Amino acid sequence: MKRVAQGPGQVNVIRLNPLDGTSRSFQGERPYGWGQRLMKFDRAPVDWNGAGTKIGLIDSGCDTSHPLLRHIVRGEDLTRDRDPQSWRSDELGQGTHCAGIVAASAAASSEMIGCAPAAEVHVFKVVPGGHLSDLIHALGQCIERRLDIVQIGVSAEHFSELVAQKLTEARLSGIACITGAGNSGGAVQFPGNVPGVLTVAAVGKLREYPQDTRHAQRALPQPIAFSGIYATNFSGWGPQVGVCAPGVAVVSSVPGGGYAAWDGTSMAASHVVGFSALLLSHHPMLQSINYGARADQRVATLFDFLRVAAIPYAQVDPNRVGAGLPDLQQVPGLLPISQQFFGSGLTAAPSLGALQSPYMPPPEAAYLGNAMNALLQLRAAGLWL
Predict the structure, then answer these.
(1) Contact 76, 123 (CB under 8 A)
(2) Cα–Cα distance between 265 and 183 in angstroms, integer?
(3) What is the pTM of this model?
(4) Which residues is 176 bridged to in the sheet?
């Protein structure tokens, strides 16, 4: 958005930069966003779409009249029980935007595609006008419906023991609860500070938006390396941050059938939710008898995979980025060995945004093809909880 100076008696003019100017896809390619490309969604097999997973979105509702969201048919408005269809009205827009990142269906003329477009999405509207009791009710519905992943797109200023207990119950029921770190620029907000919840911070990338937009004001005032990745000044931070994900100038669906580039840790969390759906749908270990059952162990293993697959950023406070940014090609045992990438062995420059080369085990270890051994050895070495 560009603002032209206004003189006496003149009309104020606002010029909008077209979103298609940020698209770099060639004809016939799936329209992945910059964040999805960074996390290597474009390197996964084309038939990987999250089918079989059930995702809950606790947020502001979802405008399912959007052409890319019409397949979302399950929802409930917990703030107004008199209207069974009011969950489809999204006054804030965030729920619709996050739903697009997670599960927007592919269309020939669309500017985007969701991370897990075939996942079964359940929408729970709790804002505006909701209370903590509505959040508890939503989590109860997620447990009753036996969902696999829940994104919590709302936050509160104060810790709630009742909500924390419900989150623990959800995890013990095999539900992976994922939330953003908050957009206050301060300490991680509730419920991101509840043990057992995966909290996601937001990062941005230079050259993925026009420099004369508000997105350019999101970077922390620190050096940025050649990669262009930077920690944001709005994202919540603290020891509770598990991983980071793209959360600046993320293009997704908005109410009314259009698209918009928004910033926020909820956008970052949506990327991780979609990433998790692909792991639950396609990772052999998470499909096994021992780890595929709905229990706390499955959630712990899923979160372990996210952290193990995260690429850390050199010289960046882990309180701001956690373990780093999850990369599908780094998940042990997920992709064929020919599709995995283990780095060049080069040492990254010690500045913000520089990618560190992932640890390369000696050839005789040969455990990257065996996800279970990878996690057990990391834990045995004291490198992972």
Answers:
(1) yes
(2) 6
(3) 0.83
(4) 149
Distances (CA, A) of 240 to 179, 187, 273: 11, 9, 17
Looking only at the bridges linking them, the beta strands covering 229-231 and 198-205 are antiparallel
β-pairing, 198-205 with 241-246?
Answer: parallel
Full pLDDT tens readout for the chain, 385 residues: 334 345 556 555 444 455 554 444 444 467 899 999 999 999 999 899 999 999 999 999 999 999 999 999 999 999 876 688 999 999 999 999 999 999 999 775 567 899 999 999 999 999 999 999 999 999 999 999 999 999 999 999 899 999 999 999 999 999 999 999 999 999 999 999 999 999 999 999 998 988 888 998 888 877 676 788 999 999 999 999 999 999 999 999 999 999 999 999 999 999 999 999 999 999 999 988 677 788 999 999 999 999 999 998 866 789 999 999 999 999 998 876 545 544 433 222 222 333 333 333 333 233 334 545 555 554 444 444 4
CA 80 to chain centre: 28
Q: Where are the alpha helices (DSSP H) in the chain?
A: 34-38, 94-103, 132-144, 161-172, 265-282, 289-292, 296-308, 318-321, 371-380
| Closest to 277 measured CA to CA, from 185, 125, 151, 139 | 151
* DSSP 8-state assignment for residue 74: E
Q: What is the C-alpha radius of gyration for the chain, rounded to an integer number of angstroms? A: 20
Phi then psi for 297, rounded to 5 degrees? -60, -40
Residue 177: its H or E element: strand 176-180
Rounded to a whole number of angstroms, the distance between the first and last alpha carbons of the chain is 45
Residue 342 near residue 353 (C-beta atoms within 8 A): no
Give the residue among 189, 131, 144 at the shortest CA–CA distance from 170. Answer: 144
